[in-house]
Design goal:
Blueprint lengths: L1 H7 L4 H18 L1 H13 L4 H4 L1 H11 L1 H6 L5 E4 L2 H9 L3 E4 L6 H16 L2 E4 L6 H11 L4 E4 L3 H12 L3 E4 L10 E6 L2 E6 L1 H9 L2 E9 L6 E7 L8 H18 L20
Parallel strand pairs: 1-9, 2-5, 2-8, 3-4, 3-5
Antiparallel strand pairs: 6-7, 8-9
Helix pairs in contact: 2-3, 2-5, 10-11, 11-12
């Protein structure tokens, strides 16, 4: 599999996205469980299938583009509202970048590291290694690149991220990822209770870091990606419960910018083991 992965890394992005769209539709049509979850999650957010149809192919593109992003030539980037990033770094308190399962979240970390790490230090991202040994090795090689460091999803990783922020560096994580039982709390997401990580809010509250929102839009015809940056609508609440709800609301705001590239098939409302509803 590793050989196949490396072979695909040399393909043009437009071809990978074309093949990925076919893969996305195949998964949608052949898996009743995935299809039901996709449609149910979109319906909870108030979207008809017609409004989010593009997200079917987008999910497949997310998979197909990985070989190129991890092992191939760097793609084309565009930047939207990046002035707020410069201001956040210049403040010197560290930056917490929050990205939902929207568009290409792999490219957001690469773009930030490539553009800002030399001046402001490395970006530390939280990630969970793949279970397959061959894929875990590829992930480790791809993500441990100049200007980009990884932190494991455990207490040591949390401490690593706090140290980075207190040094004035940046960290990145996906706050709409369902944490293990005991590591989150229930909060509304598109009006339905979802088990939500508290880490993003805790990092900002404990360190005084600036919180910025970020997502990577896939441009049509394999032209590359556009990185969109957004500031919080209001300062993060000092109360943890309120801050967690606020983070979910901000993630909703980003998703509504481009529902056709959100990962609606993600099991956002699942019940973690050992966690009461």
């Amino acid at each position: 599999m590793a050989t196949v992965f490396r072979l695909f890394s040399g393909m043009p992005l437009w071809l990978l996205h074309f093949l990925g769209a076919l893969l996305g539709w195949a998964a949608f049509l052949l898996s009743p469980t995935y299809r039901r979850r996709f449609l149910a999650n979109a319906r909870i957010a108030g979207y008809s299938f017609a409004a989010v149809r593009g997200a079917v192919g987008s999910a497949g593109r997310m998979v197909a583009e990985l070989p190129r992003l991890w092992l191939g030539a760097p793609p084309h980037y565009e930047w939207d509202n990046d002035a707020c990033v410069e201001r956040a770094y210049q403040a010197g308190r560290g930056v917490v970048f929050l990205t939902p399962h929207l568009g290409c979240f792999e490219i957001t970390a690469q773009g930030l590291a490539q553009r800002y790490a030399q001046r402001f230090g490395p970006l530390t991202v939280l990630y969970r290694p793949a279970r397959q040994a061959w894929l875990a090795g590829l992930m480790a090689d791809a993500r441990n690149r100049p200007g980009l460091e990884t932190a494991p999803t455990n207490l040591a990783g949390v401490r690593q991220m706090i140290r980075a922020l207190r040094s004035g560096h940046a960290v990145g994580l996906l706050p709409d990822q369902v944490p293990p039982g005991g590591m989150g709390q229930w909060a509304p997401f598109f009006g339905q209770e979802a088990y939500t990580m508290t880490l993003s809010a805790r990092l900002a509250q404990q360190t005084g870091a600036t919180v910025l929102l970020l997502w990577g839009e896939r441009l049509s015809m394999g032209r590359g990606f556009r990185l969109h940056f957004r500031e919080l609508q209001q300062a993060l609440a000092p109360d943890l419960d309120a801050a967690v709800r606020q983070v979910n609301q901000e993630m909703e705001r980003l998703v509504r910018e481009c529902p056709g590239q959100y990962l609606w098939g993600y099991a956002r409302y699942k019940q973690p083991k050992g966690e009461p509803a």
